[in-house]
Amino acid sequence: MPMLDAFIPEGALSAQAESKLLSDLTDILIRHEGADPANPAVRSIAWIFLHRPVSVFVAGEPATAPRYRFIASVPEGQFNDERRQAIVPAITEAVLDAEGGAYDRDPMRVWVFPTEIPDGSWGAGGRINTLADIAGFALGDQEKGRAYADRALAGRRGSPAAV
Q: Same domain, yes or no, for 124 and 107?
């Protein structure tokens, strides 16, 4: 369900550290979306797009240490305030750990944007997928997926969950 756009400058991390980081980020994304990172169906739809910025400028000058940007996108209803607030330090710490002390441990070099895609706006497989569709796939049961989506979205929309 989650998708991450990871902007990691070329050479900022060793190949081994970056590979481990991408694996760790997958687990972080899934866990903070409220799913089980061990679920193979969930893992199959947790994608990371790795972007390589050529240059990053700070105050109009080339950055002297790597700067990272992560845009975590999930279907509407998957981030509550607690999850949204928790994913930012989790990603930040994972990135700083991956650097292995090569740079000052400055969390201001890691920016994280947790975003939700409005229900009915997630396109995959040649069609629009709602939270109910995605949850049904992850849970292996469309009815359970619908019930989950009804509960997750009800609070957002100010309506009671369907019984």
A: no
